[in-house]
């Protein structure tokens, strides 16, 4: 049986931590930044972790 390939879109957007959590950068930081408040942009700098069923789905696509 052939090896399962990593989903290229997922590999660009998510990463696994050493403990197995799925880390990602918050969206909405790409453009139209003049309309967003300073505090909102500051909060978007921090990454976040995915929880629940979504986490297991992404791990399957990452094939680690």
Could you walk me through the main structural features you see in this protein, from its secondary elements to its overall organization?
This protein has 64 residues and is of the alpha+beta class. The protein has one domain: Irregular (Factor Xa Inhibitor). Helix content is 38%, strand content 14%. The protein is built from 3 helices and 3 strands, in the order αββαβα. It has helices at 8-13, 38-45, 53-62, and strands at residues 14-16, 22-24, 48-50. The chain has a 3-stranded antiparallel beta sheet with strand order 1-2-3. The longest helix is centred in the last third of the chain and has 10 residues, at 53-62.
Q: What is the straight-line distance between the termini? A: 17 Å
Estimate the strand proportion: 5-15%
Major beta-sheet overview: 3 strands, antiparallel
In total, how many beta strands?
A: 3
Kindly report the CATH topology: Factor Xa Inhibitor
Across the major sheet, the strand order is: 1-2-3
Principal-axis shape equals elongated
Domain unit count: 1
**Order of helices and strands, N to C?**
HEEHEH
Q: How helix-rich are the residues, as a percent range?
A: 25-40%
Radius of gyration: 15 Å
How confident overall, as mean pLDDT?
Answer: 94
Please give the CATH class: Few Secondary Structures
Pairing-aware structural class of the strands and helices?
A: alpha+beta
Instruction: List segments where confidence is low: pLDDT < 50 over at least 5 consecutive residues.
Output: none
Q: What is the number of helices?
A: 3
CATH architecture: Irregular
């Amino acid at each position: 049986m052939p090896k399962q390939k990593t989903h290229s879109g997922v590999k660009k957007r998510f990463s696994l931590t050493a403990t197995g959590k799925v880390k990602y950068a918050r969206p909405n930081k790409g453009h139209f930044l003049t309309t967003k408040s300073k505090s909102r942009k500051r909060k978007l700098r921090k990454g976040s972790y995915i929880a629940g069923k979504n986490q297991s789905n992404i791990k399957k696509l990452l094939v680690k």
